[in-house]
Amino acid sequence: MKREFDLKGVQPAHGEIAEVASGLFWARLPIPYPPMEVNIYIVESAGGWTLIDTGMSADMTREAWDLLLQGALKGFKFGRIISTHHHPDHIGLADWLSERLEADVWTTAGALSAFKRDTNIYGPEAEAAIERFCMAHGLNEDAQYALKRQPNSFLSRVEVDVSRLKLLSLDKPVTLGIGTFDLMTADGHAAGQLIMRDRAGQYFFSADQILPGVVSKLAFDPLDSGADTAGAYVSSLEDIEAWVEESALILPGHFPPFRGLSARIAEIRERQIRRGARLMGAFGAEPLQVGQVLGVLSGREPQGKEIAFALAETFANINNLVSQGRLVWQGDGARMMLAPA
Ligand SMILES: [Zn+2]
Prior knowledge:
This protein is about 35% helix and about 20% strand. By secondary structure, the chain is an alpha/beta fold. The protein has one domain (about 1-120, about 150-280): Ribonuclease Z/Hydroxyacylglutathione hydrolase-like (Metallo-beta-lactamase, Chain A, 4-Layer Sandwich), CATH 3.60.15. Helix 5 runs antiparallel to helix 6 (about 140-150), helix 8 (about 230-245) packs antiparallel against helix 9 (about 260-280) and helix 9 (about 260-280) crosses helix 11 (about 305-325). The termini are far apart.
């Protein structure tokens, strides 16, 4: 079933496509964890339709795809699949779809290396490094467990033969029926994440960099724990503001398309400043370990699946405060403390 698109909140149900503009369709696929669904875009182009993003390797996602392929997208010939970034909800069904749609999957070189890094199961050396890291920062065994199993849980949600991925060159525009799109990568959420804007200023594929309603998770790698991904994220917002027209319809990786780029960027920036201030507020005269401030941003001690998220958000924001010169690390590597500068 095909639905007319409107910006007032009528969303396509699973198995339906919404016509956002002539030659531009939007569909939603269910995924088994928050935000519980991911967007895909189906865009007319010269050599067959271009699919943007794939959904995750999960039964519910494949079932929604089956509905689409037997219904709304029946008879569509696809020329290529573009995956905006290496997270399972955006690339996880690469092989499965490539076979069904008879089209290659394209992504950026940065996304490919990030995929390889995040699916590299930890050997004894990396596990030992994670144990030292957790000891040094006062993180408990639950945190250690969450970090060690990350590559395994990532791998369980993807079907991607990396040797079959094709690489986009960032200096080569992508020609679609709705316009000629320039490419850029935006870091902070996922390394090498692809965003695209058309030259007429009408459309902006923002991937997960700019979402309505929720702010993108920040990237975190326990083996490269000092990376200021919050800083990278905020600085990419500046690049985007200069690069994308205010009038553009924003086509995000999750939640409905929307307009109002600068207002959304201002909200995200303010939130980021508030989060920095909230973490700073936890520090008094005594230095603290990261393990002692892990619950500050969410307002409670993280449990179970929340731990990996809390670790990422906390480290990203701490690293940002350190690079701003507001917090300083103290310690010898074996036991690390943080104190206001
Ligand atoms: Zn996503």
